[in-house]
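User: Please look over both lines:
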Amino acid sequence: MQTKNIMIVGVGGQGSLLASKLLGRLLLTKGYDIKVSEVHGMSQRGGSVVTYVRFGDKVYSPVIDKGEADYIVSFELLEAARWTEYLRKGGKIVTNTQQINPMPVITGAAEYPADLVSKMQAEGIQVDAFDALKLAEEAGSAKAVNIVLMGHLSRNFDFTLDEWLEAIEKSVPAKFLEMNKKAFVLGREA
């Protein structure tokens, strides 16, 4: 199998590590060679973060270069736009429509860019944008956006719902299990 590349991007504290852990755990159980990068960026300060997940028959490096990502999963709209040059031709962006103001916007030095989804689509990018925050809150916690996004991404793979749910069971604490399962299913069905 040719190596597949997934970038998980967002703002520090949104749960990209759990998302990559869930994805990695599932891929390992399916027998793939997998490499997952550490989070890069100001994850402790609410800054931009990125995690790379690469899988296939044999993967030699965790790094995804520009033009190589099959999927970009974005927790926040501006982060989706920020990483488009990493998407391969024919790749897909799965993004939450939530907007989190970066520091220049907060301080008044800049404005949050308007119409980001239509701008990305105008560049020929396939964008699957939806309100993952609303679904996470429906599942029981705004912090479940990461699992909602993984549920939505799961529609692009041939793994069964039960296989995904088993990976969730092995990735989250028992007290949050039912909420995360609900978040995953809501994302998958969105």
Q: What stands out?
A: The longest strand covers residues 87-96. Helices lie at 16-29, 77-82, 103-106, 116-122, 132-139, 145-153, 161-169, 177-189. The mean pLDDT is 92.
